[in-house]
Design goal:
The complex is a heterodimer of chains A (363) and B (513).
Chain A (H helix, E strand, L loop, with lengths): L7 H12 L3 H13 L3 H24 L6 H9 L1 H33 L6 H16 L3 H15 L1 H5 L20 H6 L1 H8 L5 H4 L9 H26 L11 H4 L12 H32 L5 H17 L4 H41 L1
Chain B lengths: L1 H23 L6 H11 L6 E7 L6 E7 L5 H14 L17 E4 L2 H9 L3 E5 L5 E4 L29 H11 L5 E8 L5 E8 L5 H13 L8 H8 L11 E3 L2 H9 L3 E5 L5 E4 L10 H5 L2 H30 L7 H11 L6 H21 L2 H22 L4 H15 L4 H39 L1 E2 L2 E2 L51
Antiparallel strand pairs in B: 1-2, 2-4, 3-5, 4-5, 6-7, 7-9, 8-10, 9-10, 11-12
The chains are: A mainly alpha (363), B alpha+beta (513).
């Protein structure tokens, strides 16, 4: 379409898509390590926190509804700060996108094709990435929307292991007090990371009055999927068993068997690549969007090509390992926390104070 | 080189201006001059008839000129020649020619005369007249109306378009007798000038889309348009896509129903296919029969078609991926039977699959080009004899033959020929990806397909609607065909100006009004 707008539904699924990615696969284990079987409460608490910050983001964006956060920063702090913010956001999205892209490839290698080199996966997945991201935000929105509806059955597949559920695993609720639950919010929150793309999506949204509703719905869908998979994993494995597996969310599917197909986890994980792509693609899109804004160009396909080539070269020259990726992810978590939680709150305080001060001067 | 090109260009342009000055010339009032001029324009044209006569009404010399193969000689004899030769003009009114024919035009330019003769009209030059008379008597050789052999139907109208534009427009008019049905005429082509007519409902079709189509057709610069497929290639959004973005049909009822939905139909002279646009992906999965049968049955068949679409694209790739990468996915018993069947086959699965798929495609092409009687023989020899013999000789496995056969049937179920060809083509890259990367390759392949699918446009409207810009209301007529009365709105993808098309307040059986 010529208008370059996204509908509310595309907005919801874009945000939800960025949130749910590879993190989901390891989340049950990470939660179980820290909070035991009470981890599911953490998910709900994190959801509350995330939704609150999401609403703050929308409040901030309402001040300058026609531009992205970059325009807003430029408006309040001037041209140079705006440029700096653009570079920072570009770096942040590029790093996050790259990290998840590589993680995706590592998981594919581990679970589906152990004998293929990592850079080949990067090359293979770069092709569809290029084809989708080179278009505008509308196409990306359509993609996220479509992928959500064609992958929703995966959640239903997770209901099957419930036949073997042991509900006693959850009891007693809050067995070790609230401290581990609250402290493990830090882990869970990173599964919700991604709502900060609302900073960039807001100006493209067709019906802006529903932005708050949309972002809460997106968070809720994310929360429900995380909650469901975590609960299924908790009910199926015993509390100690969970921590043995690296990705319990995949392992659990192994028990599903039909007369015509076994080892369903290979098929489902192959299909899960779609879900991961809805995380990676928007991140890469916003990275190249920022850089093309910096140069002042409309067309971002060259930057995209450059990004993908760079990424490929990095993987080719410094083959990533699981350990290094985990360390990078820990580091990235801190950065994400700053971008997704600290930054919105700070700028919100500034923007609202700015309004109050201005009014004060006028009086 | 550049100089040469420039020189050539100059030459070309000078040639054109020459032509123009020649054809822009007016005719002379001397009859013999005009006849000589005509003879020089149409040299080496044995079917040109020049008949010298003396008009009885005015006693002036005249010449009647036409091309014999494309004019209606009966009409010329009865309504032009005999009145001119035999009837007297009692009122002695010179300005009026007594000819019992509806379509008469007076022209002075040679170009118009040339076009008229080539269009099967006949021209009358009268001595001492500086105008020529053109009588509408065209009668191109044409076939009678008959059912379209490619798009056969059970319950639709048994009539297809022919090669005549007037008949084709008439067939559509017969379905939609409404004054809002407007026709825009454009001439395309340098040499074989062909008329292209755009048909649409003025109060329904989106003016922007219409404008877009019109400009695209006007921009076409080509020698001649032999087939509407050629025009399609000039005006479609993305020529590099395997998927057709404009629908070609031979069925007037289908074209009419698309017009009623707010789409625009382009009729091309001399081609039995009309072009429908803007289309969406699901348009290619519909037939007129869907609307002629009960909705539950129609929905079932339609779902079957989408199922067939996925099978035709993915099944061979899936087979290759499972056999060469992920055999642990198959349960042990099934694996045994596959293993037994593949025991004697010396080739790796992908080679086996490619051999069989190529054979099948060749068979299909051979079957289409051959006369119907031999075509059947090819089918039997190719399908049954080769299939059976290949398995017995141990060249391919039984399972592979099953896979290929199912794939073939699945691709035949798609009603639109171009779409099913596209699917056949897409299958091969999928097989290559599966050969290299197994399931991951297939998923990447599907992702590329989706990427292509959601960024495609047809006349500037999204091709993947109502699936990828998700429009729940439009989904009523995509996978499941809801009862016709319940689909109250025209599809949003047509961007129709008027949306209402039906009202669901139909009387219920027992209720008494």
């Amino acid at each position: 379409m010529k208008t370059n707008k996204i509908t509310l539904m595309q907005y919801i699924f874009l945000i939800h898509g960025v949130q749910v990615g590879v993190g989901l696969l390891t989340l049950p284990r990470e939660l179980a390590e820290k909070a035991g079987t009470d981890g599911w409460i953490t998910i709900i608490l994190s959801w509350l926190l995330t939704s609150a910050v999401s609403l703050i983001i929308i409040q901030v964006m309402k001040k300058r509804p026609d531009g992205t956060i970059l325009d807003l920063v430029t408006y309040y702090f001037g041209k140079w700060v705006g440029k700096a913010a653009t570079i920072l956001f570009a770096l942040y999205f590029a790093a996050l996108g790259n990290l998840i892209f590589i993680r995706e490839a590592i998981f594919i290698q581990a679970w589906i094709l152990p004998r293929t080199e990592l850079y080949i996966f990067i090359l293979l997945l770069s092709l569809p990435t290029y084809l989708i991201v080179k278009n505008n935000i509308t196409v990306l929105g359509r993609y996220s929307e479509l992928v959500f509806f064609i992958t929703i059955w995966i959640l239903i597949a997770y209901l099957i292991p419930l036949n073997y559920a042991n509900w006693l695993h959850l009891l007693p609720v809050v067995k070790e007090g609230w401290l581990p639950i609250v402290s493990s919010i830090r882990t869970t929150i990173f599964s919700f990371i991604g709502f900060e793309v609302a900073f960039f999506l807001y100006p493209f949204l067709h019906k802006k009055e529903k932005a708050s509703l949309g972002i809460v719905i997106a968070n809720t869908i994310t929360m429900l999927s995380l909650l469901m998979i975590t609960l299924v994993v908790y009910l199926f494995f015993s509390p100690d068993e969970i921590t043995v597996f690296n990705e319990p969310a995949i392992v659990i599917i192994k028990i599903i068997e039909f007369t015509f197909v076994e080892r369903l986890e290979i098929i489902i994980f192959s299909y899960y690549i779609f879900v991961i792509s809805t995380t990676v693609l928007p991140l890469i899109f916003f990275a190249v969007y920022c850089t093309s804004q910096l140069v002042g160009k409309q067309d971002h396909s060259r930057h995209l090509l450059l990004f993908l080539i760079l990424q490929f070269l990095i993987v080719l020259l410094i083959p990533p390992t699981v350990e290094r990726n985990a360390i990078l992810r820990e580091g990235m978590n801190v950065v994400s926390f700053v971008f997704a939680f600290v930054f919105p709150i700070c700028i919100w305080v500034y923007v609202s104070l700015h309004g109050v001060l201005k009014r004060g001067i006028k009086k | 080189m550049i100089f040469f090109r420039k020189y050539k260009k100059m030459q070309n342009s000078s040639q054109q201006t020459n032509n123009n000055s020649q054809t822009q010339k007016s005719i002379s009032s001397e009859l013999m001059d005009n006849v000589t001029e005509i003879k020089s324009i149409f040299s080496d044209t044995p079917d040109l008839v020049i008949r010298h006569i003396v008009i009885k009404q005015t006693d002036s010399k005249a010449a009647l000129i036409y091309l014999s193969g494309i004019t209606d000689s009966q009409t010329i004899y009865n309504h032009v020649l005999s009145p001119l030769l035999f009837e007297e003009n009692k009122e002695n009114n010179e300005a009026d020619l007594k000819v019992s024919l509806g379509h008469i035009k007076e022209v002075t330019k040679w170009q118009e005369i040339e076009t008229a003769i080539l269009n099967g009209e006949c021209v009358l030059f009268v001595d001492e007249y500086s105008e020529a008379f053109i009588f509408g008597t065209p009668d191109f050789p044409k076939r009678s109306l008959e059912d379209s052999p490619l798009e056969s139907t059970l319950s639709g109208a048994h009539v297809g378009f022919t090669e005549s534009i007037a008949d084709n427009i008439g067939l559509i008019r017969k379905q939609i007798r409404n004054r809002e049905l407007k026709i825009k005429e454009i001439t395309v082509g340098e040499r074989g000038k062909s008329k292209v007519s755009i048909l649409y409902l003025e109060d329904v079709a989106n003016p922007e889309v219409l404008q877009e189509l019109e400009t695209r057709i006007q921009k076409v610069d080509v020698d001649g348009i032999i087939n509407s497929g050629v025009l399609t290639e000039f005006i479609e959004d993305n020529s590099y896509s395997p998927f057709p973005q404009l629908l070609l049909t031979e069925r007037p009822d289908f074209a009419a129903s698309e017009i009623l939905q707010g789409r625009i139909v382009t009729v091309v002279d001399r081609s039995p296919n009309v072009i429908i646009g803007p289309t969406t992906f699901d348009s290619f999965f519909r037939t007129m029969d869907d609307y002629g049968s009960r909705w539950i049955v129609a929905s079932f068949v339609r779902l079957l078609r989408y199922f067939g679409f996925f099978i035709a694209i993915l099944l061979p790739a899936f087979y290759i991926a499972i056999i060469s990468f992920h055999f642990e996915v198959i349960p042990l018993k099934l694996l045994f039977s596959i293993g037994v069947s593949r025991e004697r086959v010396p080739f790796p699965p992908y080679l086996e699959a490619f051999i069989m798929e190529f054979t099948l495609e060749m068979l299909r092409e051979a079957g289409i080009r051959l006369p119907a009687k031999i075509g059947q023989t090819v089918g039997i020899v190719g399908g049954i004899v080769i299939g059976q013999a290949a398995v017995e000789a141990g060249v391919v496995s039984n399972i592979m033959v099953i896979v290929v056969a199912i794939t073939a049937i699945a691709s035949f179920i798609i009603p639109n020929y171009e779409m099913s060809s596209a699917i056949r083509i897409v299958r091969f890259p999928m097989m290559i990806l599966a050969t290299l990367f197994g399931f991951v390759g297939i998923v990447a392949g599907i992702m590329i397909l989706i990427a292509h699918f959601i960024s495609l446009e047809s006349l500037g409207t999204p091709y993947s609607s109502p699936i990828a810009p998700l429009r729940f209301k439009d989904l009523k007529d995509v996978f499941i065909r809801f009862p016709v009365w319940s689909v109250e709105k025209r599809p949003l993808s047509t961007q129709a100006v008027q949306n209402r098309r039906a009202n669901s307040n139909r009387p219920k059986g027992d209720e008494k009004g």
